[in-house]
Amino acid sequence: MAFSSENLAQIHARIAAAEQRAGRAAGSVTLLPVSKTFGVDVLREAAAHGLRRLGENKTQEIKSKSEPLADCGISWVMIGHLQTNKAKEAARLADEIQSLDRLDLALALQKRLEIEDRSMDALVQVKTSPEPSKFGMAPEAVAQFLQEVAQQAPRLRIQGLMTLAINDPDPEQVRACFRRLRELRDALAPAAPAGVSLARLSMGMSGDFEIAIEEGSTEVRIGSLLFGGRDYAAK
Ligand SMILES: *Cc1c(COP(=O)(O)O)cnc(C)c1O
After folding, report:
1. Is the overall model pTM greater than 0.85, yes or no?
2. Which atom of ligand 1 is the closest one to the Cα of 230?
């Protein structure tokens, strides 16, 4: 499958239109291309089109892609559920994690980041949807978690929050998830611990990113709309 610069242009146009509709500044929303299941050939083309920051949901997949793409200058962003025993790989391979959702993971990452002598940007994943299949921290737990990370895992530089909205045909159900994340951020920001920023809100995917932008998203994570349908069996 070849990389489609038309898809990329269309997504940028839709992001710009949504920013304008929402009365937000042009360029206030970043695109995070989600490259999971897509092969290194298309990602090499994507990098040539300037897409050098890519979201993946498995450390194993970052590992297998980062070697053949080592010359492309790609920065990998972990967006999927991370088991604590994969913290070592994540701390080595990823520049950022958006799926930080519990203290034991934060502590495991801190330990590995000390060994690697580096730090990592992080977003706290919050569960805003009632679906049991969705990961994330309960909204009520985030305030305390921010304090704990600031004190016990300072190599994680918290930059904001991330969520996945409910899968629901009713756009108002989806909107409610995004709104919950923004309201949580607005409530927590004034008392955020030193060194913790809540400026970023990563929310919105191929099917719902325009609603997310209307609700204050600063980063949309888009896979299938950019790269085409995913074939999990083939990869
Ligand atoms: C796969 C994935 C996306 C992108 O999904 P699309 O619907 O293909 O745009 C975004 N966020 C997370 C956490 C994902 O796992």
Report:
1. yes
2. 8
